[in-house]
Write a structure and sequence with these properties.
28% strand; alpha+beta; 199 residues; 2 domains; 5 strands
């Protein structure tokens, strides 16, 4: 970014020097030739300099993230009721929206991963190895509609291979869910997403 700004500044300075030197030499030669000031002004060509707009400069600025591993713990310590309310509402809305389809969705992900058909899919543990993480994306302190959260958990899934042995097979599936666009009137999140990946 600083290199881009330096290039612009150097270009502007060089263009200004060229204009001053060229103008001075031109005026001296014009005065020697008896030209008027208007004739001199019309003969001077000012080059175009492309100066970036504020938006273009702002687009080049990379703002470092201030979130670290302790940020959510800090929020929970300062706003425990708000964090708990968002977490509970997000979990409830996700279950209402995707609860009936979890096993089918997980089945599709595992089949795509192993390249075989499976059956008798069941989720043994929704929080395998206590690998659960809540990330508050926005507490909605200024406006409840801004509330947003992400929930990560690892599911332990049991299944049979359709054309394999009769043994139970197990898979760990990572689940990442997001809740945002909170509706104050209905007390629910309107925008819900969930993604599954075989770990």
């Amino acid at each position: 970014m600083q290199a881009n700004q330096s290039n612009v500044i150097i270009t502007v300075v060089l263009a200004t020097l060229i204009l001053l030197i060229g103008g001075y030499a031109g005026v001296n030669s014009v005065n020697n030739n008896g030209l008027t000031a208007d004739e001199v002004a019309s003969a001077v060509v000012i080059p175009t300099v492309n100066v970036p707009t504020a938006e273009e400069i702002a687009a080049e600025i990379k703002v470092p993230t201030l979130r670290n591993d302790n940020f959510d713990d800090l929020l929970e310590g300062i706003y425990p009721d708000e964090v708990e309310e968002i977490e509970d509402q997000c979990q409830d809305d996700l279950w209402d929206e995707f609860g009936d389809d979890v096993e089918d969705d997980v089945k599709d992900v595992i089949e795509a991963d192993i390249g075989e058909d499976i059956e008798d899919v069941s989720i043994v543990n929704f929080n395998y190895d206590n690998d659960y993480d809540l990330t508050i994306l926005n507490l909605g302190l200024d406006d409840d509609e801004d509330r947003a959260a992400e929930i990560f958990s690892v599911l332990k899934v049991r299944y049979h291979e359709s054309f394999g042995d009769n043994d139970w097979h197990f898979a760990k599936v990572e689940s990442t869910s997001t809740c945002n666009d909170y509706d104050e009137n209905d007390n629910e999140f309107d925008n819900l997403k969930v993604e599954y990946i075989v770990a």
